[in-house]
Amino acid sequence: MRTEADVRLEGWLDGYRPIPGVPDELFPPGGRSPDAWTRLLGALAQFPPHEFEDRFALATRHIRDAGVSHRIYGEDNERLWPLSPLPLILGQGEWAGIAGGIAQRAALMEAVLSDLYGPANLVAEGHLPAAAVTGSQDFIRAMRGVAVAGSRPLHLYAADLGRGPDGRWWVLDDRTQAPSGMGYALETRLVLTRAFPQLYNAMNVERLAPFFSTFRAGLADAAHRSDPRICLLTPGPYSQTYFEQSHLARYLGFLLVEGDDLVVRDGEVFVRTITGLKRADVLWRRADADFIDPLELNGASRLGVPGLMEAVRGGGVVVSNMPGAGLVESRALLAFLPALAQRLLGEPLKLPNVATWWCGQARALGEVSERIDRLAIGRAFVGHGNAALAGGPRLLADLAPGDRALLEQDMRARPIDYVGQEVVRLSTTPAWRDGKLIAAPFTLRVYAVATPDGWRVMPGGFCRISDQPDARAISMRDAQVADVWVLSDTPVERVSLMPRADDVRVRRLTGTLPARAADNLFWLARYLERAEATLRLVRALFIRLVESHAERHETLDRVRDLLVEGGAVDEEFEGSVPAAGLLALCDSEQHGSAVRLIGSARRIAATLRERLSEDFWTLLNGLDVRLTGCAADNATAALDHAQDALDALATLAGLAHENMNRASGWHFFDLGRRIERGINTCRVAKALATDTATPSDLDLLLDLVDSQITYRARYLEGMALAPVRDMVLLDPHNPRALAFQIAAARRHLESLPHLREDGMPERPLQLLRALEGEIESAQAATLPIGRVAAFEDTLLTLGTAVADRYFLQGSNAVRVRKLGGLA
Amino acid sequence: MIYEVRHLTTYTYAKSVPFARCALRLALMADQDQSVIEEAIEIAPTPGRLTRHIGSFGEQVDTALIETPHQEMRVLATARVDVHRAPPLQPLTGEGWESVRDQAFASQTLVIGAPAHMLYPTAMVPIHAAITAYAGQSFSPGRAILEAAFDLARRIRADFKYNPEATDVSTPAIDAFNDRHGVCQDFAHIMISGLRGIGLPAAYVSGFIRTIPPPGKPRLQGADATHAWVSLWCGPATGWVGFDPTNALVVAGDHIVLAVGRDYADIAPISGVILGPGKQTIKVAVDVVPVDESGLHAAAPTRAIPAAA
């Protein structure tokens, strides 16, 4: 009897249309569907209608909230990678072939690099023309003849593969510079295991964790010291793959650093931390080599470390992959690899690469010219050549006649800049789109790491699925990312990155805090606190509007003034008080509006991803999205938005308080909050607790500092100036009072490392102790309200003093600049 | 001819600079055409650390780290050099340029000075269709390479106006080309871009020319500061030949080579980073004086001008 599941599965399969002449994973040519696919689809069909999609959507939302993103350079907003609910499935036998081919190719790439940066016998013996090498921007001449620390040019290699019309796998591209995508491979795995745990466990899918563990061990072995400090050198938050980098840094336990965090001293590299310089042993770079040292390489780079190349040459630091490793990514090289494999390894390539002709050789140019209409023409090297090819190889037939003529002219003038390539057709794999099972072209990125016993290949990968039905590789447009399941014939042992218990020394603090991270944590907290202050003003304003009383109008004007003072509303604004409240909530033009402040907090948090819990980020990201989309046009809606945002901020504060380790990072985070709250408390007290304050003013003030209930419980007599001032400013037991902030800030500063050797307090602490003394001895009844402005000033000065003492860019912000002029 | 070279660079900062890291490429190149008899580099303030290595194009690089707060940095390079470069071949012939081009494409060496290093565009010297077409007018099919290259240098000299005010160190070659003016660096970049555009290996040369011309000869442009010109690979037999588009000359005994690279950025005499806000100004003074057999030389006034030729 046919079950509902059978009907569903039949429906999926009936609608499935492989592209004629193109191999498909589900319907291999001449064969029957692999058991694994039948099992997988069968199991998915067991779910009631939509449940399989719902489960996947839920798991994906987890990921989306965690902010998986792929940034297009220059865009402020992160693009989300859509994930495919279906993995690419590869059997053990097929995988063995791929892994063997990749390991061989990685070894070949390493041999080519060692030769070209060493004796260059390949060139002298005529196996590789010199001009096929020098065209690469990643031929870093400064690395020639350098014995690299760690003694290998490559630690991590990746290749993009496609399955050709004959069912064989082909290498489309090599990645040796700084292969990306491993973090996404981890994330897609996470989503599928979360969505379909039983399915995953039942299918003997090879685990990824041992591969990462091997990678980490390999980098550690390359260093001179035991227990080395390994840093991931990132191009920064504007990098397309920044999320992935911070995710990997956290997963692997590496310190995420930017160029500004590092400094070269006496041939070694150090991280700037709040306790001074700390040695960096290994830099896993995700920045292109050209950018890592503005002194010796690209002088326009703002991402690098001046002097880094000197340290590399002297062996003072391991930079992985070696600067210049990107050389072997050139398309020109593909033409020579089959012969180079014979010459260097004494064996043919196990995985062929796309047949390629480098036009710099007369014979190859002749062959390309003969078959010009059947080949794709591409740039031989990234970065130069005809503009029409900037996006990748093209068929001449696809070019406009004018462009084609121009390209042919360029190829005649500088054939060295071009290659001709066979047009590869990609195979298809099942993908899920709009409730249907469809056949979509895909490419597969596979990774290998160097170990003392040879290259180890990650059993899985980064699979990109095209949204174009055109299966030619040159038309590939990434639309979705899929997990890659390598199935074992035997049950798979569950392994994670957990080392054996006796391998790990117990530590209670996780190293030293980079100065930049301290800076960011400090400002993250300040922006969050500032946003809370604005939102409390907005909430108080709309609550009072809803229950309007005439005598409160002056108080409402003061709210507006405070919003203007905080930068939430423009000084020139002449509209009504409610209109000002709406602007303060969601006018992105104003630097002090809630939406802007939360946006700033989110941007800073994005640079701290490896230090914040996922919950924290998810919540903040969600709040940012809601406020950005907020279109409140009436008091009730505005009130709802303000309340929602305040709830979220309270949860964030709770998360930070309950979950952040009480190490240096926490001290800076909470110090930022205390200083900012102190400043805001001074501001509102200065405006509302004046000598002529009305009960309505005082009532508002207590609302703003969240002390209404405490006050009413303590003073049954009603609103009076001195008690309100005491509660808001001087009471050390009220966690919203100025005195409380000062004491808390002082304790944070006392917990932070000191640099002075003479035992004297550093400037931030001096400032704070003086302020604390004055507040402790002040009396609410006699405190001149003018002093509050002075307290505020001291706190502002304190913020600057903290920056000067601990951060890279203090108030005397000095940036490394180029020596100017033509010397 | 033996020359004494004195090359003084002074950076002045509006505010104190606590940190500077500089790469100095100030040692004269020693090769078969010129022998360095003696040379010295003095830096003030004295660097805390000074290291030396051979750069990507065979040039000596001294890397200085200064952590003494300073408002002025002076770098003085002095040398005595014997230039014995042969006078240019007469007549200017050589192989057909296409044959040179094909041999460069097929060359089998990556040693320093190999033609393959100088075939490709760089960030500072990209290839532009307009400049390539301009250069192409001198390179008619089959024309002898030396003749064609000299013709190009001569045309640049004739078509472009020498104007130190018009461009600066960061002016892209295409701007100078479109406006038909510039200084030695611009003319060298334009000529290199054109030569590479048609597939020939061309290098950027920085150096000096003698300050006071020989009796009866005009004073050359660029004598007051570091100069720049072009070196073109003219086939395995002829090798590299210098062309000075600023003066429409084939390089011989009046030119002293500092360093050779793909463009200015590869071999800037002084490059580096400093920490600190505020304005900076730079002054460069160069004296190149021939020394006669008795070791005497005509006294030359030291001039200081704020830009290069």
Describe this entry's structure for a reader.
The complex is a heterodimer of chains A (823) and B (309). Helix content of chain A is 45%, strand content 12%. The radius of gyration of chain A is 31 Å and the shape is globular. In chain A, strand 6 and strand 7 form a beta hairpin. Chain A contains 28 helices and 21 strands. In chain A, the strands form five sheets. In chain A, strands 2, 3, 15, 16, 17, 18 and 19 form a seven-stranded antiparallel β-sheet that branches. Chain B has 309 residues and is α+β, with helices and mostly antiparallel strands. Chain B is 17% helix and 36% strand. Chain B contains five helices and 15 strands. Chain B has a five-stranded antiparallel β-sheet with strand order 12-11-10-9-13, with helices on one face. The longest helix of chain B has 15 residues. The C terminus of chain B is likely disordered. Chains A and B meet through helix 6 and strand 21 of A and strand 2, strand 4, helix 1, helix 5 and strand 14 of B.
Distance between the termini of chain B: 23 Å
The major β-sheet of chain B equals: 5 strands, antiparallel
Mean pLDDT of chain A: 87
Helix and strand content put the structural class of chain B at alpha+beta
Number of strands of chain B: 15
Largest interface chains and counts = A-B, 49 and 62 residues
Short descriptors:
heterodimer, A: seven-stranded antiparallel sheet, four-stranded parallel sheet, 28 helices, globular, B: 309 residues, alpha+beta, five-stranded antiparallel sheet, 5 helices, 15 strands
Map the helices and strands.
The complex is a heterodimer of chains A (823) and B (309).
Chain A: H1 4-15, H2 35-46, H3 51-66, E1 88-90, H4 92-116, H5 121-124, H6 131-134, E2 156-163, E3 169-175, H7 182-195, H8 197-202, H9 209-222, E4 230-233, H10 242-252, E5 255-257, E6 262-265, E7 268-273, E8 276-280, E9 282-285, H11 308-313, E10 318-320, H12 331-334, H13 337-345, E11 356-358, H14 362-370, E12 376-379, E13 394-395, H15 401-413, E14 418-421, E15 428-433, E16 436-451, E17 454-457, E18 462-466, E19 478-482, E20 484-486, H16 515-546, H17 553-565, H18 577-586, H19 594-606, H20 614-628, H21 635-659, H22 664-688, H23 695-704, H24 708-714, H25 721-730, H26 738-751, H27 763-777, H28 786-806, E21 816-818
Parallel strand pairs in A: 1-20, 4-5, 4-9, 9-10
Antiparallel strand pairs in A: 2-3, 2-16, 6-7, 7-8, 11-14, 12-13, 12-14, 15-16, 16-17, 16-18, 18-19
Helix pairs in contact in A: 1-2, 3-7, 4-13, 16-17, 16-18, 16-19, 16-21, 16-22, 17-18, 18-21, 19-20, 20-21, 22-26, 22-28, 26-27, 27-28
Chain B: E1 2-17, E2 19-24, E3 34-44, E4 49-54, E5 60-66, E6 70-83, H1 97-105, H2 129-136, H3 145-159, E7 161-162, H4 173-179, E8 181-182, H5 184-197, E9 202-209, E10 227-233, E11 240-244, E12 249-250, E13 255-261, E14 270-275, E15 280-291
Parallel strand pairs in B: 7-8
Antiparallel strand pairs in B: 1-6, 1-15, 2-5, 2-14, 3-6, 4-5, 9-10, 9-13, 10-11, 11-12
Helix pairs in contact in B: 2-5, 4-5
